[in-house]
Write a structure and sequence with these properties.
A: Arc Repressor Mutant, subunit A, six-stranded parallel sheet, six-stranded mixed sheet, 13 helices, B: alpha+beta, Arc Repressor Mutant, subunit A, Beta-Lactamase, 2 domains, six-stranded antiparallel sheet, two-stranded antiparallel ribbon, 8 strands
Chain lengths: 362, 246
């Protein structure tokens, strides 16, 4: 049971104002009393006090309705830069990429006097769908989505449009959004592919360990394949999807891939956590097959500068991604269209030769 | 009567005064409100605690700002809270409109209430402000908004607000004027002169909730200036009106 208000007359006044605001026409003291359950004498006294303050108007017939002061105060509310509500949907918090991103987002939104509503879906598309609805119902002004599945939310994009809530895709692009900010994932795959090809001197069978079916991963794979096409001696003999973008998934997929293809001499993992799973699997077998990946995490850099088997990672910049996205989101929430619809944030390839000058995240 | 006098509902009057302090500067500390209202710290604490609970105020950082309740209450003027929110966010979304003064108006009986306004760069004979109420009928002719309202809608709001329509119920005169002057079909938009001295382009919001008053978005011009593309402005205004009501 809630605590009794310290100034009960104020709470009664609010009940009266709420009742009048919900009515399409002025109401008598008796009608207000009936609707609110407050004594008529109390309603009458409060309505007269509110009328003195122009918060209600009094008709010549003794009825009351909302007064002009309410419009004045409400307009002041909008004019004092109402704090924007940013909704942010991410696949998981159990991932340094997202924790790094969230730290930066919380700092920037707080500095802007806004509110940040973050929900994570454990990489579950159905759960993310529910959360998308939840954030719309919470009344967010703009929604930023790192989609678990880039192609699964067309209807929610339509619904968001009908509710005038702009949607930005982050990390992975989606059709139908108001804008997107992601790493240049094709470039990431391309750089990783050329590094692996160079290590293998352009010869041998390689495999792609893929993850969630999202645009970012597809672009990375496309970039990797583009690089491989420059080396006729390299053959992509397997491309397998894991159920998630995490270490357990990488390990599980690696087991199947190496069981089916014993001659694999190189691996492209679409993200560092998957690469860690492959690395763990190879370590248990006492094998060493060079792995290239995407992300730029600290653990990947440890392997790159140590004994491997990860030899390179195309580093994303999650802080720059979210800061760029929040800037676009603020413009969109104020009705301004961004200068361009999609921002691709460049990546940098981290190898043993340049890791010393790289500050990893995570 | 001062806010600390023991008249009717003194706590309500203190709350209104506290809202005034916060609205004036955009934000205020507990100490500032306490000082401004000449209240003891404990009394101010009780007052502000209840106002926070009731969402009349909210905390932002270390300061108090106006709370969400006020916008929710103001939604009663237009019948849909989304309209106010969208007007605040989208008034400059349509490029031809962004330099002009736009107001959101609700027709409440014989009064045209300005619910919200965004001031443009043109100096106007009359600058609308939120909360201002202007009569729409001078006994002989109607304000521009009446040229856009159907006789039935005008009749309905005049009946609902009959206690607020002044000493003489002018319902029949207004309805007759509308029937005589309202265009039978949408014509090319042309600014109409208001009694305020402003020329006004008006676009009524479609699809309002049952019982809600007629609501319009109005573009204010200093003159019927030659060289102004009223068709382009009218199209943008209509698009804004539909976006607000969507």
């Amino acid at each position: 049971m809630g605590r009794a208000p310290r100034s009960p007359a104020i709470s009664r006044a609010v009940r009266i104002l709420e009742f009048l605001a919900a009515e399409a026409a002025p109401k008598s003291v008796s009608a207000v009393s009936r609707a609110t359950g407050l004594p008529k004498t109390s309603v009458h006294g409060i309505c007269l006090a509110l009328a003195d303050e122009r918060m209600v108007s009094r008709g010549v017939d003794g009825t009351f309705w909302l007064g002009p002061r309410i419009a004045e105060l409400a307009a002041s509310t909008w004019n004092t830069e109402r704090s924007l509500r940013f909704g942010l949907l991410i696949p998981t918090r159990s991932n340094e990429y997202y924790t790094t991103m969230l730290d930066a987002a919380e700092m920037d939104v707080r500095a802007a006097g806004g509110e940040l509503h973050v929900l994570q879906s454990n990489e579950n598309s159905d759960r993310q769908r529910e959360q998308w609805m939840e954030l719309l119902d919470r009344g967010v002004d703009v929604l930023l989505v790192d989609a678990v599945d880039s192609n699964a939310f067309g209807d929610l994009l339509e619904l968001s449009k009908r509710r005038n809530v702009p949607v930005l895709a982050i990390g992975s692009r989606m059709n139908g959004v108001d804008g997107s900010v992601s790493s240049d994932n094709t470039q990431a795959g391309l750089l990783a592919g050329h590094l692996l090809a160079a290590r293998l001197r352009g010869e041998g069978d390689v495999a792609i360990i893929d993850g969630l079916r999202k645009n970012a991963n597809a672009d990375r794979v496309a970039g990797f394949k583009e690089a491989v096409r420059d080396y006729p001696g390299l053959r992509v003999v397997a491309r397998e999807h894991g159920r998630n973008d995490n270490t357990a998934s990488g390990r599980s997929v690696a087991e199947g891939v190496f069981a089916a293809h014993e001659d694999i001499v190189g691996i492209f993992a679409v993200c560092d956590p998957i690469a860690f799973g492959v690395s763990d699997y190879l370590g248990d077998r006492g094998a060493s097959v060079p792995i290239v990946s995407v992300d730029g995490r600290a653990r990947a850099v440890e392997q790159i500068t140590g004994a491997g088997p990860i030899i390179g990672t195309a580093a994303q910049d999650p802080v720059r991604i979210i800061r760029t996205a929040l800037g676009m989101a603020m413009d969109l929430a104020h009705g301004k269209q961004p200068a361009q619809g999609a921002f691709l944030i460049p990546v940098r390839l981290v190898t043993a030769d340049n890791a010393e000058g790289y500050a990893p995240w995570g | 009567m001062g806010i600390n006098d023991t008249g009717r509902a003194p706590a309500v009057r203190r709350a209104a005064a506290a809202l005034e302090v916060v609205a004036r500067s955009g934000h205020a500390s507990v100490a500032e409100i306490s000082r401004d209202l000449n209240l003891a710290k404990s009394s101010a604490s009780d007052l502000l605690s209840t106002m926070l609970t009731e969402r009349m105020l909210t905390r932002r950082g270390g300061a108090l700002v106006l709370g969400e309740l006020l916008a929710e209450l103001a939604a009663g003027f237009v019948g849909n809270p989304n309209i106010l929110q969208r007007f605040a966010l989208y008034w400059n979304k349509y490029p031809p409109l962004e330099e002009h003064t736009l107001s959101l108006q609700a027709l409440l009986g014989t009064q045209n209430l300005c619910v919200d306004v965004r001031i443009g760069r043109h100096v106007l004979p009359y600058t609308p402000r939120a909360g201002s109420r202007l009569p729409v009928w001078d006994g002989a002719r109607g304000e521009p908004i009446l040229a856009h309202v159907s006789a039935d809608d005008a009749d309905a709001t005049l009946r609902r607000f009959r206690g607020f329509n002044g000493a003489v119920d002018e319902r029949e005169g207004i309805v007759s004027w509308i029937r005589e002057h309202a265009p039978s079909a949408p014509a090319a938009p042309s600014p109409l002169l208001s009694s305020t001295g402003n020329f006004e382009l008006v676009s009524l919001l479609p699809d309002r909730a049952p019982g809600a008053p007629p609501v319009a978005v109005t573009l204010h011009l200093p003159s019927r200036a030659a060289g102004t593309d009223h068709i382009e402005l009218g199209v943008a205004l209509t698009r804004l009106a539909h976006a607000l009501a969507d």
